[in-house]
Every structure is written in structure tokens, then in C-alpha cells.
Specification:
The complex is a heterodimer of chains A (about 240) and B (about 100).
Chain A: H1 7-17, H2 21-37, H3 42-51, H4 55-64, E1 68-70, H5 71-82, H6 84-96, H7 101-108, H8 113-125, H9 131-156, H10 169-179, H11 185-204, H12 209-224
Helix pairs in contact in A: 1-9, 2-3, 2-4, 2-9, 3-9, 4-5, 4-10, 5-12, 6-8, 8-9, 11-12
Chain B: E1 2-4, H1 7-32, H2 39-63, H3 66-82, H4 85-103
The chains are: A mainly alpha (about 240), B mainly alpha (about 100).
Pfam family, one (chain B): AzlD
Organism (chain B): Halomonas salipaludis
Keywords (chain B): Membrane, Transmembrane, Transmembrane helix
């Protein structure tokens, strides 16, 4: 087993990801509109999409955006939402370990849910070219940026976003990500723990601590649950 | 600790997010090259991923207006039946807009 990264493989990955790009553009548009509505400038919105490149954590960051940006809560929620990347990266470790160090860590910067899923399938099939991860990541990044730009342009032209229901995009996006996966006791118990802990933190603990408290409570609840028979893939 | 909402403050906040996110992307491979991630850590991370979203959404459902609450209900309903996130979000937006149209 070996692995390599080259242009033809990257280009092939880009093409394989292309059919998904309209959806990514639509999500990017939703994020752009929500960010502008939350008071971020166009440049800040594009910078966040370009550098962070992780939808759910970006939407959650908007929720924390205010006259003061709570840095600890922002970092904690970003980490908690994106911690699934740790598992995704670990799953590809045997494959990527064959790449030169610089290529390996540059490729990981482009790892997102969809290109990871396709690359992981390639790896399991015995494919030696990691172009799917990199090319797919480039395609997703371009679509995400284009969508964000459209959202910034569109969102800047609306004066009363509440009238058109645009203020609920953030919450509805996060909810759709949450319930899009498998629903069973294994996930519901941690969620209930997270909701109760978040409510308690909202009532009694400092502002914005509810995100960290909820995430930890849910994580611990999941840890205490009996392990399920079938290992679960990292949720989207 | 918090940052003021100035261009510099916002930039630093975005940069911190980018850094943390990159650490999660590279961290799995970095850690695995030393010690493998065990099933307990995996369970914790998997449960935490959804829980943090729950913690963010809960106050919205609790303290939002009825437009926002019904929007979440609409998204939830569409997601359960269709599993299509974009459709769910569209249903939420339309519900909030519709509710506020009736109320105004």
C-alpha cells in the first residue's frame, strides 16, 4: 500500500466533486446572507469562509457574534463542532502517512465531510492516488466561496431580513445538520443532556458558557453510554 | 475573555477559528502518528459533535419569537420526512416569513 498526490488525480477529484457544488453554493449563499444580517462586513464574511471553511462552526460563530466577541466560547464551540475532523483524519492516517510531510498537512487543510467520505471510499478500495481528497476539497472550497460571495451581495441588498424570515437561516441550518444523520437513543440521550446542561448554564453560569457546558455534558453522556455494537462513521 | 467588535477584533476572532479548525483537521493524523485514538475518545467526540449544536439551538427555540420557533419546527418536520437540509432550511425561512406576514 502506498499513496501519492499528483495533478491528474487532483483534477479527477475536482471533477468527481463538481455535481455536488450547486448544493455547496446554496449553503454558502445562506451563510453569506446570515453573516451580513448579523453585522459582519462582506470582507469578514469572505475571510471566514475562506480560512475556516467549515459551515456548521461558521453558523454557530454568528450566534456568538455581538458587541463583544467571546473568544473562549468561540474557540470552544468551533473545536467541539469540528472535533469530528480528528476522527476523519485519523481514519485516513495509514493512507496519508505515505505522503511527504508537507503534502500531507497541506492536503488535510482541505478535508471536509464530502471529500473525506469519497476519499475514504477510495482508500478502502485500495486506490493509491489521494487526489480525491485534494481535488474534491478545492472544488468544495471554490463553491463555498462563490456561494458566500453571492450571499454577501444578496444579503447587502435587504433592509428588513426578519420580514423575509432570513434571521432564522442560522438556527434552521444547524438543526438540519443535527437531525440529518441517524436518530437513536445513542445520540438522543447526549442531546437531552446537552440541552438541559445548556439551559442550566444559561440560567446560572456566565453568558455564552452554555455552548461549552452543553457540548461537554453531551460528550460525557455519550462516553457513559454503553458502546454500540456497530461503529458509527463521523456524523456530518 | 472577549474581543471588541472592531475590524481587528473580528479579524483575530476569524483567525482563531481558522487555527482551531486547522488543528482539528491535522490533529487526527498528528495524534495517530504517536498514539491511536481509542473507542472511548471516539464516543466522546461523536456525542459532542451533535451536543454542541443542541446547546446552540436550545436558546433560539426558547427565547426566539414564534416565527423563529415555528421555523425550527418546520425544518425539523421536513428533515424527518425528506432528509434534505436545503429543503428543510427553505421550509423554515418560508414559515418564519409567513408567520410574520400574518402577524403584521
Amino acid at each position: 500500500m502506498s499513496a501519492r498526490l499528483d495533478w491528474p488525480g487532483t483534477l479527477k477529484g475536482l471533477k468527481r466533486m463538481a455535481p455536488l457544488s450547486p448544493f455547496v453554493i446554496a449553503f454558502g449563499l445562506a451563510f453569506g446572507v446570515a453573516a451580513i444580517q448579523r453585522g459582519l462586513s462582506g470582507l469578514e464574511t469572505l475571510l471566514m469562509s475562506g480560512l475556516v471553511f467549515a459551515g456548521a462552526s461558521q453558523f454557530a460563530a454568528l450566534e456568538l457574534w455581538g458587541p463583544q466577541i467571546p473568544l473562549v466560547a468561540l474557540i470552544a464551540s468551533t473545536f467541539a463542532i469540528n472535533a469530528r475532523h480528528l476522527l476523519m483524519g485519523a481514519a485516513l492516517y495509514p493512507w496519508l502517512s505515505h505522503l511527504p510531510r508537507r503534502q500531507r498537512y497541506a492536503s488535510l487543510g482541505l478535508m471536509s465531510d464530502s471529500n473525506w467520505a469519497m476519499a475514504a471510499a477510495d482508500y478502502r478500495r485500495g486506490e493509491t492516488n489521494v487526489g480525491m481528497l485534494v481535488g474534491g476539497g478545492i472544488a468544495l472550497w471554490l463553491a463555498w466561496m462563490l456561494g458566500t460571495l453571492l450571499g454577501v451581495v444578496f444579503g447587502s441588498g435587504i433592509s428588513e431580513p426578519e420580514r423575509f424570515g432570513l434571521d432564522v437561516i442560522m438556527g434552521c441550518f444547524l438543526l438540519s445538520m443535527l437531525v440529518g444523520g441517524k436518530l437513536d437513543l445513542g445520540v438522543l440521550v447526549p442531546w437531552v443532556a446537552a440541552a438541559l446542561a445548556a439551559l442550566a448554564a444559561l440560567a446560572w453560569l456566565p453568558e455564552n458558557s452554555h455552548v461549552i457546558v452543553g457540548a461537554l455534558a453531551g460528550g460525557i453522556a455519550g462516553l457513559l453510554m454503553p458502546p454500540r455494537s456497530k461503529p458509527k462513521e463521523a456524523s456530518p | 475573555m472577549s474581543l471588541p467588535l472592531t475590524p481587528l477584533g473580528a479579524f483575530l476572532a476569524i483567525l482563531s477559528m481558522a487555527l482551531v479548525t486547522y488543528l482539528t483537521r491535522s490533529g487526527g493524523v498528528l495524534v495517530m502518528s504517536r498514539i491511536p485514538i481509542g473507542p472511548r475518545v471516539e464516543r466522546f467526540i461523536n456525542a459532542m459533535a451533535g451536543s454542541v449544536l443542541v446547546a446552540v439551538i436550545t436558546p433560539m427555540a426558547l427565547y426566539g419569537d414564534w416565527g423563529a420557533r415555528l421555523a425550527l419546527v418546520a425544518t425539523f418536520g421536513v428533515m424527518l420526512t425528506s432528509r434534505k437540509p436545503l429543503l428543510g432550511i427553505a421550509a423554515g425561512i418560508a414559515t418564519a416569513a409567513g408567520w410574520r406576514l400574518i402577524q403584521s
